[in-house]
Amino acid sequence: MRIEHDMLGEKEVPATAYWGIHTQRALENFPFASGRVPLELIRAMAMVKRAAAGANRDLGYLPAEKATAIITACDEIMAGSLADQFPLDALQGGAGTSSHMNVNEVLANRGLEIMGKARGDYACLHPLEDVNLHQSTNDVYPTAVKIAAILELKRLSDAIALLQGALQRKEKEFADIIKLGRTEMQDAVPITLGSEFSGWAEAVARDRWRTFKCEERLRVVNIGGTAVGTGIGAPRDYIFLVIEKLREVTGLGVSRSENLVGETANADTFVEVSGILKAHMVNILKMSNELRLMNLLGEIKLPSVQAGSSIMPGKVNPVILEAASQAAMKVIANDALVTEAASRATGQIVEFMPLLADALLGSLLLLNRINAVLTRHIDGIKADEARCRYYVDKSRTIITAFVAMVGYDRCNELLKQFEASGQENLRAFLEEALGKDMVDRVLSSHNLVGLGHREAHG
Q1: Given 309, 363, 395, 421, which residue is catalytic?
Q2: Is 0.85 surpassed by the pTM of this model?
Q3: What topology does CATH give the domain 2-133?
Q4: Which class does domain 395-448 fall in?
Q5: Cα angle for residues 16, 20, 22 (degrees, 5° grid)
């Protein structure tokens, strides 16, 4: 063990740990086991720290040796190293200060190693005086959350595009398969299976566009604002340079807010983005429910991915769609958490930013994975054309397709005759009554999705 000191006194820290006393206290204060801080956020904080170190070096506020050590350590964390050195629970008080100090301490101790010094030798490289020079949790943490979210949003837009492609392939593959539409859990007029997939593809296309565009909302950051957005404790030249360095480090078109006080005090942008994620999962949930119903009815066959029961041999459940539905519910719940965390901010700080970050980034990570899984699953869906046709041929609702040709009253008469006949196949009855050519023409896939009828009333 090694002994470290802070304003509250001293504490033992594991000798092998790169973190220090602030992290050690947080480990003891927040033993909630709700899940660790996302590594995506840790890497984003390392990006911010790298930008700050570069700006302080170039302006002469940080000696080159110290800056080089910090920047090298940042690069290592950004590349995925030292992941086990960020053990804190995602739920923590202090608006993210504990996670921020965790990053400061790991960078300082790794930087000390790079300089050939011992961990904890803060006289040579200090977590606060050097790594955190001209910064505050209140500008570093929200900026890092935005960077992490932007990077995940870019991946999500690509993942949604792949899901859209899978749906469009099924739209084309099933273009000529006639099936019943359904409204209010009842038979409706016929459509094609392909057109049903096209409806989902169109909804997902909107999700893709919204996701692609909403990352622009996150590009305005408050780095340089320090504690409350006034830039207190930071020199003016640093405030102007650090945003340029951040653009270089991240490769993102981020910009400093024109009103750093407002940007520090408010989190409504996160709420807006979270709402767009919720909208996507509303579409996923609806689509998953409908695919499960169609699988139950035998109109489609989902890929079999695992045995479905410990007691019923041969049972196969739609587990991927069930998982997707649960992911959707989770994202919808996370949106409520983002809303609550943002709305309960007071004064010049969003003190519940850790919950907001965990919920928002959790949704993004979950969405990226579930879109990938759904894409593969949908590619494996097969259609049972005969089963689809069976439901169409026996449903009384198909008479609606003939109203424009023979009139409403005539259709009513035909239905009465059909019910009196005792037959079960309405299509076969209509072929006898109206002629097979007319029935084939009216109930063709082209006619059913052709946007209006083409035959005159007769």
Answers
A1: 309
A2: yes
A3: Fumarase C; Chain B, domain 1 (1.10.275)
A4: mainly alpha
A5: 150
